[in-house]
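Submission sheet (multi-component)
Chains listed below:
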Amino acid sequence: MAYVAISDRDDPIHDPESFITKYIWSQDHKVIAIQYGITAIVVGLVALVLSGLMRLQLGFPDQFSFIDPASYYQFITMHGMIMVIYLLTALFLGGFGNYLIPLMLGARDMVFPYMNMLSFWVYLLSVIVLLSSFFVGEGPTGAGWTLYPPQAILEGTPGAGSGIVLMLGSLALFIVAFTMGGLNYITTALQARCRGMTLMRMPLSVWGIITATVLGLLAFPALLVSAIMMLLDRLIGTSFFMPALVSMGEQLSYDGGSPVLFQHLFWFFGHPEVYIVALPAFGIVSDLLSTHARKNIFGYRMMVWAIVAIGGLSFIVWAHHMYVSGMHPYFGFFFATTTLIIAVPTAIKVYNWVLTLWRGNIRLNTPMLFAIGFVFTFINGGLTGLFLGNVTVDLPLSDTYFVVAHFHMVMGVSPILVVFGAIYHWYPKMTGRYLDDTLGKVHFWITFIGTYAIYYPMHYLGFLGLPRRYYSMGGAEFMPESAMSLNAGISVAALIVGVAQLIFIYNAIVSIKRGKPAGHNPWESTTLEWQTPDTPPVHGNWREELPVVHRWAYDYSVPGVEEDFVPQNVPHSDAKPAHG
Amino acid sequence: MSFFKEIMQKPWLPPEDDVVSDLSGAMAMSTAPARVALRLFLAVVGVLFSLFCVAYYIRMELADWRPLAEPTLVWINTAVILLSSAALQYTRHAVQRGNVGGMNAGLVAGGLLTLGFLVGQYMGWQELRAAGYYAASNPANAFFYLLTAVHGLHLIGGLFVWGRTTLKVWRGAEPYQVRLSVELCTTYWHFLALVWLVILWILIST
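Outcome: structure written.
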């Protein structure tokens, strides 16, 4: 069933009759969002288990016979690729983007519901193709998540037979799925806003999501180009990326290709990808902080400009991932400069989050804990980014655990904290019930403290020179014994954090039926998704009439008004004045 | 209102008169969503081809690059794709005037010419292979096959939409019912013809 996105009458184009059309082949953006979300979380759990297996080997080397070097590299590769693309990108844009854009903008649905449905099914197909590589031949590719040639397709690299082909094919499918979804999100935000919803009245969540979508639409083609060209190198023996080389004592037929060209294409996608994950998190966390601190977001305009500026700048920093590839010093100088410049709008956002909290009436519920946890973690991870953005600092640290610690803090843990905060926040809208708050707080504290126990020591290990990507430290005699026991401690923390996520899964399943009923606007929020006549919103979101917006999204604690929040669809003349 | 003007607004200030103007309503009515989506899609496709071209220029600098002699067929193909673009432009014109005959003829001509272009490109490949220019033997050859193939695939995608539109017309759809589809097809065809001209220029100039 599908609705016209901005029709003032709720006549469906056609009605869903059966369970299948309502929940499986659904064209309702909310159902598609939940399909996206569940798929992403399931595949993310696979990646979580893989990281646990890696930590077993790193903390307790050679104790587990089922982890050999080949499988270790396969775990690394699949863990990285799944977490970045199939979990975070899909969850933020396909999941939250789908759920929030039409609801927050007062539309009945996305403007192209059928294409939206198609987007999910192609995404699911890409996940199936990816996971199928575990079951074919020698298993998935072990090329590392960056898939650098030449080793990615050379014999001797695990999965160089079918694994890499399935990986590249799956990425191509994902890009097709994302493009269908992305065109939808942008067009909906441009064309289907309800009356009165000017761009500057949009909640920051929507700003973050649509800017990230624009980045995705412009950056994913670079990944597609590199995937197609590498596929041709692998399958029909072209030499786009493959240099002349001798492998296993044999001269290969490749000649003259440029592996560095692949790196440029990959990171031209790869760096915006960081912000594809980060910008929705920035937007969502702004809304969580403002709502639960009962204060308007500090510096709304600056927040919007910063999101747009970060989005633009993210396209000219890519080569800071390639300082060790042997580039011209001036080239490195340019990218170090742009990298440091991008810290300015990012820092503005951080200050504004902190100033939003300042003297707020903070309600320390689970979503707020996760939001504040994000601010801490993002500052930590962001600061080490300033170190690594400089060529001279990056060169010695590049191949150490310092980098692992940095990117996990900044684009692993930080966005995932926002994901959790957002699920605790919007779950009542999706189901009509709260997630259990006690379990939520247990989940938060274990996750928050646990991730610090994992990643803080890694910075130190990196300074000591512990190399990343290694299956076994073998001849690393320069490492003190204490570093090795630290590694074991990290692994224990990682396993605890991993298992603790089951608390969340349990909470999410049980609360569907047994959670505390939440009512239609449990957090006393101003944005439109909380003003729907039905909770959870029915297909079509609104009854006969679409909402009309009279104010921005952050009218919390307005002076002279009785309640401490005024929803966006309340006219200025209707806001109840305070007594006395 | 321009984007920059709009993001300069101070939304926290109460409006002087709380009359909700049709700020977004007007915007939503003026352009069909499909038209906006197509423009965005063309931007995405544009980035895709640009990156292929950048890769081409970077790879070209390396020592093993040996330029190939483009098949003579590409010139005929170029004429054909330009004609297909013109045929769709004519269709669009006919549809806007409610000219059913012109619409039918234009659609069929546009589709057939496009098919002709694709067949011509395929024959160009055969010509190259007969002359010993294999994809794996030199990156210049590989890029020739790659660029023409990716371009052809985009045209085939367009032919699906063209096919659906033509089917509707054959089943008796009035011009106004297919107007949007025809207009979008025309834009897409012009874009792909332009992309082809750029690719051709890059291929023959290097």
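Remark: The first strand of chain A starts at residue 246 and ends at 247.
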